[in-house]
Amino acid sequence: MDFSRQNLEKYIDTVVQGKASSADFSTEACLVEGPVEPFTIVIFGATGDLTTRKLAPALYNLYLTGAIPDSLVIVGAARSRMSHTEFRDRIKTALIGTDMSMWDRFASSLYYQSVQFNSPDSFLALSKELQTLEKGLNPKGNKIFYLAIPPSFYASVSEMLGKAGLSLENQNGNGWVRIVVEKPFGRDLKTATDLNETLHRHFGEDQIFRIDHYLAKETVQNVLMLRFANAIFEPLWSRMFIDNVQIIAAESLGVENRAEYYEEAGVLRDMFQNHMMQLLALTAMEPPSRLQPDFVQDEKSKVFRSLRPFSEWDLKESLLLGQYSSGAVDGKNVPGYREEPGVNPVSITPTFAGIRIFIDNWRWHGVPFYLVSGKRLAKKMTEIIICFKKAPHSMFRGILGEMASANILTLGIYPDEKISLSFETKNPGARVCLRSVRMDFDYRQNYNGPVLDAYEKAIIDCIQGDHMLFWRQDGVELCWSFLDPVLEDCENCADQGRRLHFYPAGSWGPEAAESFKS
Ligand code: BG6
Questions:
Q1: Which one is catalytic: 275, 365, 393, 467?
Q2: Residue 246: which residues within 8 A CB-CB, separation 6 or more?
Q3: Closest ligand 1 atom to 382 CA
Q4: What is the side-by-side order of every strand in the sheet holding 40-44?
Q5: CA 111 to CA 83: how far, in whole Å?
Q6: Distances (CA, A) of 65 to 40, 61, 102, 377, 481
Q7: Would you say the C-alpha torsion 39, 200, 275, 412 has a positive or negative sign?
């Protein structure tokens, strides 16, 4: 330790008072490691919602911050006919509200190609077009194929790419070639393995990127840092000190214009099979020995493999399903799920679920994990809440007549990107009274640099060939094996309708959820 006055002042400013100057924190070092090679990205489903809402803004922001090279080729591919100019106009509209200073240069990288998803000729034409566009810009021919299309087209698009020679790496005018697949990865174990087999006919596992945008959220990545870059949490992180864990992903939005998909998926396939399971794995996994994709994925798979399967009896105890009826969100009246356009008026698709999960391993034996997610709840909020056990003996009981509250560590993912720890203190004054207070860390504290949105991070990682924040197939299959019996029970039981708890839009879910965690 350097005890010079200058050093002590700096220590007090940064560590004790949290007043670090921007020079103490590197803003650029966290963006992208090393130069990014020129590449082409072909977005199948270029006229869809995902492209306009997420992918185009992500690519443009990466371009603005210089995280991706100027010599970029972006090809929007979809079934409808459209000119390059019309496509550019569409993307421009999607970027309204952004800094448009680089738009003209970015727009010159955008192209459109009409593609019929089951036509070999269409894909041969695409291949030819790519060779022309890539000349001088992307000499190696590095390519990303992004499937932003309904999953029913995944198989034919990957098949057609393969047949047109577009999946072959380092031959046929290609450099590296990667395919990005959006969830859902199948709708049960069988369809997930079928999809995997189809993808593997033409693409190797290292070419396949199964995206889960939750994994690329800064605060979700931070769960690993909090747990494994600090020595103080890990010794407490087990059944010895933790009473229960709650993982909550509440949304205030309804089904929007996705009724066709959502009617088939419901909340269990839409949120649990992917995002919720990843949050669970990050919270419960053992420390990997290295921060490398396979090391991390191995530890996650061990968690998935340890999930206690539900018996028929405890499924009723451990699963609560609900559906929103009409109500008010943010002071606005909104329709119930069954009244939404495109939804069956007697639909029994759940829009809310609470599941109690146990992990059968040494660390977590007997600790319930409550996973709760729903649409049209009071507000959008995503949090992981670690509830510690109460102090084993309270010496204050004689005076206060009650036990002190347990400590709670909250990992806020949205809207507050924070870590907060609650603990008991003495209230100032002559009498002994306790009060619970919180120690808060805001994720952006002392950081003014650019922040990558989840899709930006996922795209960058894909360009760099880094699978850390993507699903590995064994994880996908293990989660389906766990959820399949739950889905079967929900979808095939005779009293399915009766077991659905309705809740008014804008509430915190069905009333039965109140007693769910007791
Ligand atoms: C998507 C689901 O994967 O995640 C949507 O399909 C859900 O239904 C969304 O609204 C939630 O993501 P975020 O990032 O808004 O929490």
A1: 275
A2: 369, 370, 372, 383, 384, 385, 387, 517
A3: 16
A4: 110-114, 73-78, 40-44, 143-147, 177-182, 208-211, 470-471
A5: 8
A6: 18, 6, 10, 35, 42
A7: negative
Instruction: For residue 85, give the 3-state DSSP assignment.
Output: helix
pTM of the model as a whole: 0.91
Q: Is the pLDDT of residue 129 over 50?
A: yes
pLDDT at 511 over 60: yes
Substitution site in 50, 187, 213 for ligand 1 pocket (most atoms within 8 Å of beta carbon): 213
- Distance between CA atoms of 210 and 207, rounded to whole angstroms? 10
* Secondary structure of residue 285 in the 3-state scheme: coil
Chain centroid to CA 415: how far? 14
State both tokens at 47. 């006229």
271 and 249 in contact (C-beta within 8 Å)?
yes
d(CA 513, CA 386): 19
pLDDT tens column, 370-392: 999 999 999 999 999 999 999 88
Query: Catalytic residue at 365?
Result: no
Pocket of ligand 1 (CB under 6 A): 213, 251, 270, 382
Q: How far is the CA of 350 from the centre of ligand 1 (A)?
A: 15
Structure-token match 């082409």, residue found:
40
Question: Which atom of ligand 1 has the smallest separation from the CA of 253?
Answer: 10
Report the 3 state secondary structure along 382-401. Answer: EEEEEEECCCCCCCCHHHHC
323-348 pLDDT per residue, tens: 999 999 999 999 999 999 999 999 99
Q: CA end-to-end span of the chain, whole Å?
A: 49
Q: What separation in Å is there between the alpha carbon of 471 and the centre of ligand 1?
A: 16
Residue with the two structure tokens 């609560």: 320
